[in-house]
């Protein structure tokens, strides 16, 4: 390589201290998901292109993968063309169908993996990004309490992370579809997709689209917009919908399902859930509860945790596997918080102790000290050179390593120095331990 | 999806219990690497094709990535064509050059990621596979003790894993190259690459290649083969090389470097390291110590942990960053051991306790019990239905969940049942805990 390479736009990478933050965030998510009984699944990175195209909508943004010296028509057959997955829901549905005979249902899984989209990169949108998903999938029917449980798992996970507060908006497709039918609309999905543009283009333009593109009457359009305006932190949205004077069985089911989710949020995660009746979610596989989440103070990033119920995404023709899932945009959250230095780590290495070397001949003794400390869970490096102690201490300082260990010479005791305070005490590798807060790097908000 | 999808050859995926084994293996590697002061790095999955092609040799096996609707010449320019990385050494070298001003040297990093190669799939060779790498990279020069340290870190990591014993073979490129020069060979890399085929085609055919393709005399070929036959677990290889009557400065340096590595192996990881003078490693960027590792009883899998010193892979023209690294083939090891059911997990879910529900009305009470147990680190699921208790117990049994919790009714105490033994005792969620060995699933050898 003749000159320094440059970053690729849309493919973020972290420096070591930033990566420590990412690891601890992912560790916390994983720990919470496992405490709630979710099993880890990793799917391969590629799916047949036709599997993904059948899910529609984003085929423009897919990355196709082929061998550099592919032979013959190997990658012209759409059943054989492979593409990098753009989310984890489609691969997970495929995994469930492929392994249905070997899985126990209901199946609770989490999946923390990279995904890829060939979109124009911008803040919050990357070509390679990390997602953390939880889904519950069942055979034939999926109980309604899953719609309540999933946002509570997310609330539990983020409550122990040093993030700005997250607020999750909830809606229900049945409520919206039932309402639209109640006002006499046929193409309910078409209306939903235009309502979904409210945040981007505002109510006046959405109203214009509803009237001109969807042929709604002024009254119908006004009613649909009135529904979308309803947003409450309590259960009062139910009365506000009823006050619009529209009724129907599907609408009633949606209202009850949404009320159950919001009521549980009030009880178990106060301030986290909001009934927000304009939330639509673009993807057409959602069939009931849908979720979107903003990070307070960073609303313009868009949703950082989205999902919903999909009752008919996975089916082999005989059996259907309804599911519900939520996906946290780990890269979207961390790129913002790391990029603006709102989060960092107390040091750039896992190392807690640097063993200093009086001379290169002391390296074997240093190895024994290091092994004794590591055996008790303390991360240790041995100085790479037996330079002057001042230089070895600077090696630790530059990395944020808090302690330097000086092996005793001529029968003298070992000593350990806290290089932040300068305190230096006698110590033995068999029993010295750092304070708990120094053992591992910690996430801090500078 | 009208019918069940089928697996893609070369893209292994695990069932939940297998994935638990993989997670625990990866966790152990990570913990050991961090105890030795290695920082985590993740690089993006793609590199410019020209970066990878410059490293030569495997361009046939690379997966190229392009947007499905790429515009114009976007992916005809080799500087803009992207490909999935085939290892972590090339991306890491690029990362070091790109971030040289922000990293502290020597830089110790580990990297546990997927890599991709378009090879014909067979056991031990996959198109998508997980690797766990450690490297130390420095500016200008890298001390020799790194060549000793890296295999000891691997020995430490695998010593706590339930794997068949690993045996690492070590050689030194300077030793081989110095010896070949000493016998009068010019194209030392050419000889090395043919010696590398010894295990595949045997000494008679390698001798033929050396004589016919490399124009070595019979005497030269015999000497090169005699060197390759030397394999010792102690330092006697030094005298055996000297007995061949060849000498030279580079040979002497190589002998001393290899002796230092093997001596440290004898002291710190007895039985792990073997001096094996036929080890060559195909890649031409290695410049000194090289390593290969077999898993006992599974030698035909090939090397499960390989690497070596590369003194000039990473350079920006002004500064060179010499490194040494080892890469564990996690997929190669686990596909064998999981595929033959030589390893499994004690259960298929993280869940330790299932809270049973006398009726659906008890779900809120179940949530409070679950929250109390989770708060103390115990993984809990709440029964998905308030079916008959027998059915709820079978839900736990099928997943290997060891405990079922029965909420007390009408003021009675809660009870917890070990469904393996049938023992059932009074318990309170605020202080009950399972025995340590039941808290999380464990890896077992059936």
UniProtKB/TrEMBL annotation, chains A, B:
EC number, as in UniProt: 6.1.1.21
Region (Disordered): 424-446
Pfam families documented for this protein: HGTP_anticodon, tRNA-synt_His
Domain named Aminoacyl-transfer RNA synthetases class-II family profile: residues: 21-350
Origin: domain of life: Bacteria
GO molecular function terms listed in the Swiss-Prot or TrEMBL record: ligase activity
Keywords, in A-Z order: Aminoacyl-tRNA synthetase, ATP-binding, Cytoplasm, Ligase, Nucleotide-binding, Protein biosynthesis
Basic and acidic residues composition bias: residue spans: 437-446
Catalysed transformations (reactions): tRNA(His) + L-histidine + ATP = L-histidyl-tRNA(His) + AMP + diphosphate + H(+)
Record InterPro entries: aa-tRNA-synth_II, aa-tRNA-synth_II/BPL/LPL, Anticodon-bd, Anticodon-bd_dom_sf, His-tRNA-ligase, HisRS-like_core, HisRS/HisZ
Homology family: Belongs to the class-II aminoacyl-tRNA synthetase family.
Subunit structure of this chain's protein: Homodimer.
Name of the protein described by the UniProt record: Histidine--tRNA ligase
